[in-house]
């Protein structure tokens, strides 16, 4: 079972109307500020860097193209066909592959694993935008894709991002221009408890191999010109020995 049709239609509408220019989408930051930082945390835990890399929720492919410069085969996957069309258009040299897939669907994930074999996975900011019922199936699919040898790097908004986003949405002048379309299309970031993500991972049969906190950079600025950053959590997951951070939170 995949995501709801309402959810898919919301994303199709968003990407169909999103600005074409670079950085026109709230989370579409330059790779040096996003995937580049995450990759530095992810690479030390890759036991098989030659595996295919799957960018789940690739959007218009900005981060996917960055990954394609560093790994032999990179596949960007997104629920919205409109996003995949943009990603392909922005990659005329064909550095990466792009497909429209609902990876929360078990059979889709199984078919992709049958094609690719074990894969490494990068996913940024997807779980907190999922409807609650879709979160466990999505993480289960990540477990399917990684198999025995792959690793996944998951970056999600922390609980502390909730008050920041609510403050931006309730500003007297309305939400920032790049954030307003997210709310307008009904895909406003949801709130996932910090402790819920490790539970989803454990339920999928994976373990947290490394974890930490860092700000997630957006493309939007505040009235004073400073870039908006949102608190986030990053985790590297796979099959292996569990990690516990100094605070005791896995």
From TrEMBL:
Keywords: Methyltransferase, Transferase. Residues 54-146 form the Methyltransferase domain. InterPro entries: Methyltransf_25, SAM-dependent_MTases_sf. SUPFAM superfamilies: S-adenosyl-L-methionine-dependent methyltransferases. GO terms for molecular function: methyltransferase activity. One of its GO terms (biological process) is methylation. The keyword Nuclease does not apply. CDD domains: AdoMet_MTases. It holds the Pfam family Methyltransf_25. This is Class I SAM-dependent methyltransferase.
């Amino acid at each position: 079972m995949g995501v709801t049709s309402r959810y898919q239609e919301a994303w199709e509408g968003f990407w169909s109307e999103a600005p074409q220019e670079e950085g026109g989408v709230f989370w579409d930051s330059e790779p040096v500020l996003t995937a580049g930082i995450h990759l530095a945390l992810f690479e030390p835990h890759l036991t098989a860097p030659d595996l295919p890399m799957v960018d789940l929720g690739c959007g218009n492919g900005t981060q996917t193209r960055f990954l394609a410069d560093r790994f032999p085969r990179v596949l960007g996957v997104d629920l919205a066909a409109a996003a995949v069309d943009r990603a392909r258009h922005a990659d005329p040299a064909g550095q990466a592959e792009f497909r429209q897939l609902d990876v929360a669907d078990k059979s889709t994930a199984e078919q992709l694993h049958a094609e690719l074999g074990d894969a490494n996975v990068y996913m940024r900011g997807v779980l907190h935008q999922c409807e609650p019922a879709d979160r466990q199936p999505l993480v289960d699919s990540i477990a399917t894709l990684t198999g025995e040898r792959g690793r996944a790097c998951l970056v999600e908004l922390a609980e502390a991002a909730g008050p920041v986003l609510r403050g931006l949405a309730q500003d007297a002048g309305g939400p920032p221009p790049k954030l307003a379309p997210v709310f307008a299309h009904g895909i406003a970031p949801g709130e996932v408890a910090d402790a819920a993500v490790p539970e989803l991972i454990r339920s999928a049969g994976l373990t947290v191999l490394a974890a930490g906190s860092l700000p997630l950079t957006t493309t939007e600025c505040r009235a004073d010109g400073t870039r908006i950053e949102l608190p986030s959590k990053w985790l590297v997951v796979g099959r292996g020995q569990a990690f516990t951070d100094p605070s005791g939170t896995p």
